[in-house]
């Protein structure tokens, strides 16, 4: 510019570098020694002098992404360039999403994140996506996850900036299955069975209870005092998250064998074996292991077990009582003796037969001559 001449030529438009929404300056190139200023929404937001080398750096407070900034250059004569237009870029990642608790029963991951952001839910190699609504709420459908699974949730804005991940661990809300319990008899001093590995098992009888823990294979054995047959026992398992199973309910069974039967003398003329045993039990008469007769024991405890044939003198009979649970008594062994011929002669006499019957059923071995 020569002195005396009036400069009426405006500078060319500045060349402006991209501006991000975190930037606190605008840089670029413009006519040397000009002044550059930036205008956003009608207000000046910054101003700088261009260096001899034609470079500028004007300070601004960071602008919201999408803001349109016009940058002008003005020379010493007050000529103003056409504006350079720059739209503030979104370079800010959304904040970490807030994620609600997720349980192993849930089919969604819910929470809040940056409005309209895209949500990614990730477990290991699997991922599912959704979108935050205009209020920032999201609900992303997922398949049920196992308790303890780590879930990562990120939000991505439209510019592709991804938030840091929120991490949640899937909580256990699933109760264990009811324990499988082995038979408990009135002889048992422990309740045994299987339940969920690592669960706590409680045995409840009336108002009392006993606790134990399953081992790594799920087995448990909980010591209890002996219970009467017919007692109701309930067994529950509780996982480490405190979820309790339904109760396995069962009855203590009779595991006590009857006492060995008391058996009257048996002669080679007998077709019935008489004696006493546990009321309600069943009598089996055997030779060796083969059954030759049986009978029921009445309420009074007496029995008359029919055998299918008279046995020879010297034959060893084995008499066993079984209770309703088929618990077997120890065997009573009797040897068949020679019958009393005198008595057998008199069998026809009603009075005598009656007396014999009464005596036999009373468990007497000898007939008293009371007639
Ligand atoms: Ca952003
Ligand atoms: Ca569980
Ligand atoms: Ca019994």
Structurally, the number of domains stands at 4
Order of helices and strands: EEEEEEEEEEEEEEEEEEEEEEEEEEEEHH
Number of helices: 2
Shape, principal axes of CA atoms: rod-shaped
What's the mean pLDDT score? 91
CATH class of the largest domain: Mainly Beta
Give the helix level as a range of percent: under 10%
Determine the structural class based on helices, strands and strand pairing.
mainly beta
- Euclidean distance between termini CA atoms: 166 Å
Which molecules other than protein and nucleic acid are bound?
Answer: calcium ion
List keywords for this structure.
371 residues, mainly beta, single chain, 7-stranded antiparallel β-sheet, Immunoglobulin-like, disordered C terminus, binds calcium ion, 2 helices, 28 strands, 4-stranded antiparallel β-sheet, 39% strand
Short synopsis of the structure:
By secondary structure, the protein is mostly beta strands. It has helices at residues 341-345, 350-361; strands spanning 15-16, 25-29, 35-40, 43-49, 55-59, 68-74, 84-87, 98-99, 108-112, 118-123, 126-131, 137-141, 150-156, 166-169, 180-181, 190-194, 200-205, 208-213, 219-223, 232-238, 248-251, 262-263, 272-276, 282-287, 290-296, 302-307, 316-322, 332-335.
